[in-house]
Amino acid sequence: MSHQQYQECIEACRECATVCNQCASACLHEEDVKMMTRCIQLDLECAAICNTAAQVMSLDGEMSAQLCHLCEDICNRCAEECEKYTRMEHCRQCAETCRKCAEVCANMAQHV
User: How far apart are CA 76 and CA 90, in angstroms?
Assistant: First the structure.
């Protein structure tokens, strides 16, 4: 499979990584940062895995399917955590973006 066939998933992963980093940064400025610890941690993990998945897919890498499965998992975990804080715009947006990315990754993993 060429990297062009991965394009939708690569773009979803890159967007998710960006939104997760923005969410983590915004969470650090919340009044009760300690309450946001797990959210921040999952945001950072999700961003790292999404970036890695996008990079490996762009190489048409052998581990693309496995990374798509891993990306789907971390995106769903991150979304679940962010959904606890949807009163905050950054968490609401992050949850939505993570759910979308998880769906795209799940579809991609089935076709790799």
Answer: 16
Using a cut of 0.70, tell me whether the model's pTM lies above it. Answer: yes
- Does the pLDDT at position 2 exceed 90? no
Cβ neighbours, 10 Å, residue 34 = 6
Please give the Cα distance from 32 to 11 (Å, whole number). 33
Alpha helices in 1-112 (DSSP H): 7-27, 37-58, 64-82, 89-111
Judged on CB neighbours under 10 Å (0-12, 13-18, 19+), 44 is: middle
Question: For residue 85, which of 29, 25, 23 has the smallest C-alpha distance?
Answer: 23
Closest CA to 111 of 4, 3, 6: 6
| Residue-wise pLDDT tens digits, 40-96 | 999 999 999 999 999 999 999 999 999 999 999 999 999 999 999 999 999 999 999
Contact yes or no for 101/77 (Cβ under 8 A): no
> What is the C-alpha to C-alpha distance for residues 12 and 33, in angstroms, rounded to an integer?
28
